[in-house]
Design goal:
The complex is a heterodimer of chains A (338) and B (383). By secondary structure, chain A is an all-alpha fold. In chain A, 69% of the residues lie in helices and 2% in strands. Chain A has 15 helices and two strands. The N terminus of chain A is likely disordered. Helix content of chain B is 22%, strand content 33%. In chain B, strands 6-7-8-3-9-10 form a six-stranded mixed beta sheet, with helices on both faces. In chain B, strands 13-12-11-14-20 form a five-stranded antiparallel beta sheet. In chain B, strands 15-19-16-17-18 form a five-stranded antiparallel beta sheet, with no helix packed on it. Chains A and B meet through helix 10 and helix 11 of A and strand 6 and helix 2 of B.
Chain lengths: 338, 383
């Protein structure tokens, strides 16, 4: 044992240490002087340590999500200028007495009028939805097999799923160019086994985009599904079998309905980033692959139209928040069953 | 089931003693090995129609594995399981006319009480109106009328246990397997449910096989008990036989409390045997025959309630009479338990029913006492 004098253990008085996970975290944070100081300040204003710990993630969201979003929202209501920064200010002092707020709605009106943007949004959702479905169909059997694998194998299999993350995402997408191009590995392989005679055009098509998205986001589907399927009580399947239900039917009647929270989580984790995906359609897709991420990039960097691209981003966010809210509703509903 | 003239509810039916009866379930030389570990070791037992059969033993004795083989979740490594003369050993669980009530209840969390109970009938493609009728019957039988539309997580432990029971009974199985069915309930509810289980079993006439580690539970509910240890069945008998005539020290000590005294046979009479025991410091006369030669090592088992305790010496202090000192007294309200230290240093317990209200103890700490018993109330065991 370490010398008690040098042991850096802070004794936390009161009920705090016995109030569960949140308070345990609080007890650990109390080891750090800034937190202690902050805590002292707050307790003088009447805030409990519980609120304090819960405040940490909220502060995080405020700083790294809400603040940037408000900046983007602000830019989306401004006018494009050839200046630095390339947009007009929202607030202006007029005649040294009036603070004038000028909201430019032109960007949003353009998004509604010009069908290019609507088509890009719809096309993004279509591509993301199809990719999500394929990811689910590929990911479910993988997750299922992992959850049913012998216990000592599970950690290894989990590592295998996470392993691709150790290489740069960009490099992995580039690698697919090598596989999918006309003289690439895929065509070579298909011709070798005699399935095709002429090389297929895979690269720069929607198919390549699907492949890229499914490949890149598969772990996001497998992990929540695995977490869900792994904790499922196997005696439920035994009970179903005991009551006369054959294994395949038991899957449809018991396993699948009980894994819906995992399916929903996985689908949102794939769908939401896939809608705004830029790298994959840019590298693997064709010139006619319309995705909102590409449109955004073009407006921002090619046209240097920050306000319009900000408006595109805000609308995209709104389109994504709706499914996230549905997702949370479903989770809350399922929460009671767990 | 009911007979005219107010006959007693429980008839003594002992099909296992009737050579004309053929067994309903035959477990013949069944073994189950998991790798090198032998979970069930060459078990043979016959179970008769309408029995409430208990598999009793400490955890890890193989009783649950045996039950899972009856359900079909495990295949025997050796031996056969016959149901009404048909070999069941390799029939998958979903084709066996046998249902199981799981220890964890294994209720489907996404289904209501009703659909949980109806699940088994739907698998058999029973007509819809019949499903509705039979589910309603079951719900009534287990008194869950107000909870039919609830989901399992909205029920208490006792209610879940009833749903599990109803779900496993609704298909009218030829045999119902119960894996520690009352393990998750508190003591009061458990005792009440034991009697309900017995009534339901009697009403439906289904053969029940129950796995339990609780000897009181096994004694209360079952028609016969199989005491298991290390994968083997040590004794199969009625609760009374198991208690009064255990065939080994293991059974005697597993069921209830018992004093065991070591000794050697000194005399083999026609209807008695005599044993000399250094621990008891007296001659022991027992009324039951035993397969052992004179001089053979035996153990005498005496239940605490069959050991009389008194401060005045009996007429004959040389036979079935031990002297000792009261070491400790346990007052349980209905009973008093006396821990007595014999002159040899051996501790024995005797228990007395407190028939009169306790004002002053007739026997108290450090009293010198005499422990006596009738030759017919002790059992001689050879192993």
């Amino acid at each position: 044992m370490a010398d008690p004098q040098s042991n850096p253990v802070a004794y936390v008085s009161g009920r705090a240490a016995t109030q569960g996970r949140v308070s345990g975290l609080h007890a650990r944070f109390m080891l750090f002087a800034p937190y202690r100081w902050f805590h002292g300040m707050l307790s003088r204003t009447g805030l409990s340590s519980r609120t304090l710990v819960i405040m940490v993630p909220y502060l995080w969201l405020l700083m790294f999500f809400l603040a940037p979003f408000l900046i983007v929202l602000k830019i989306s209501f401004s006018e494009v200028l050839i200046a630095r920064p390339p947009y007009s200010a929202l607030f202006e002092m007029v005649d040294d007495t009036y603070l004038q707020l000028r909201l430019n709605l032109e960007n949003y009106l353009l998004l509604l009028e010009d069908d290019l943007y609507w088509k890009a949004y719809l096309s993004s959702i279509r591509i993301a939805a199809i990719s999500t479905l394929i990811t689910l169909l590929v990911g479910y059997p993988i997750a299922y097999a992992m959850a049913r694998a012998p216990r000592q194998w599970r950690l290894t299999l989990l590592m295998a799923v996470i392993l691709p993350f150790w290489t740069s995402f960009l490099i992995r997408v580039y690698a697919w160019i090598g596989i999918l191009k006309k003289e690439g590995l895929m065509n070579l392989f298909l011709m070798k086994i005699g399935l095709i005679e002429q090389p297929l055009t895979l690269l720069n098509t929607d198919i390549a985009v699907f492949i890229g998205i499914v490949y890149s986001y598969l772990p996001f589907m497998v992990l929540p599904l695995y977490a869900n399927l792994e904790k499922m009580d196997e005696s439920l399947l035994e009970a179903a079998s005991d009551l006369g239900c054959k294994p395949l039917k038991a899957f449809w009647k018991i396993t699948l309905p009980l894994s819906i929270p995992g399916i929903v989580a996985g689908c949102f984790l794939v769908f939401i980033p896939a809608v705004g995906e830029f790298v994959i359609p840019d590298l693997l897709g064709g010139s006619d692959t319309l995705m909102i991420g590409k449109t955004l990039w073009a407006e921002f960097f090619n046209n240097r139209d920050w306000p319009l691209s900000s408006a595109v981003a805000v609308l995209l966010l709104l389109l994504l928040i709706v499914p996230i809210m549905i997702f949370q509703r479903v989770q809350q509903k399922q929460g009671g069953v767990g | 089931m009911t007979e005219a003239g107010g006959a007693p509810r429980h008839k003594t039916v002992e099909p296992w003693n009737d050579p004309g009866q053929s067994p309903y379930i035959q477990i013949a030389g069944v073994s189950k090995r998991f790798g090198a570990f032998v979970a069930v070791d060459n078990v043979s037992v016959d179970i008769f129609k309408g029995e409430f059969f208990a598999l009793l033993g400490p955890s890890g004795c193989g009783k649950t594995t045996l039950l899972r083989m009856l359900a079909g979740f495990e295949e025997p490594s050796q031996g056969r399981i016959m149901l009404e003369g048909e070999d069941m050993s390799t029939v998958p669980p979903y084709q066996r006319p046998v249902n199981m009530m799981f220890q964890s209840y294994a209720l489907f969390p996404h289904m209501t009480v009703e659909s949980n109970i109806a699940f088994g009938l739907k698998q058999d493609r029973v007509p819809k109106d019949e499903i509705v009728r039979r589910v309603a019957e079951m719900i009534q039988l287990v008194q869950l009328d107000d909870f039919a539309k609830r989901k399992p997580h909205q029920l208490s432990g006792g209610q879940r246990q009833r749903v599990a029971l109803a779900r496993s009974l609704v298909k009218k199985p030829k045999m119902l397997l119960l894996d520690e069915p009352l393990g998750a309930l508190d003591k009061k509810l458990r005792e009440q449910t034991q009697f309900e289980l017995m009534n339901i079993q009697e009403e439906l006439g289904i053969t029940f096989v129950i796995v339990t580690h609780d000897q009181e539970e096994a004694m209360t509910v079952s028609s016969r008990i199989a005491v298991m240890d290390h994968g083997r069945i040590i004794q199969v008998a009625t609760p009374a036989e198991i208690y009064e005539y255990p065939n080994s020290r293991y059974v005697a000590e597993f069921i209830g409390d018992v004093n065991t005294l070591e000794g050697r046979i000194t005399q083999l009479g026609t209807d008695f045997i005599e044993i000399k025991s250094a621990q008891a410091a007296c001659r022991i006369r027992a009324g039951h025959g035993v397969e052992a030669p004179v001089g053979g090592a035996v153990w005498v088992a005496i239940r605490p309630e069959k050991l009389n305790i008194s401060v005045t010496p009996p007429d004959d202090t040389s036979v079935n009479c031990m002297r000792g000192e009261v070491w400790d007294i346990g007052y349980l309200g209905n009973l008093s338990i006396y821990h007595v230290r014999l002159e040899s240093g051996q501790m024995v317990t005797s228990c007395l029913t407190n028939q009169t209200r306790l004002v002053e103890r007739a026997i108290t700490w450090e009293d010198s006492v005499y422990l006596t018993w009738a030759p017919s109330s002790c059992v001689v065991l050879t192993g």
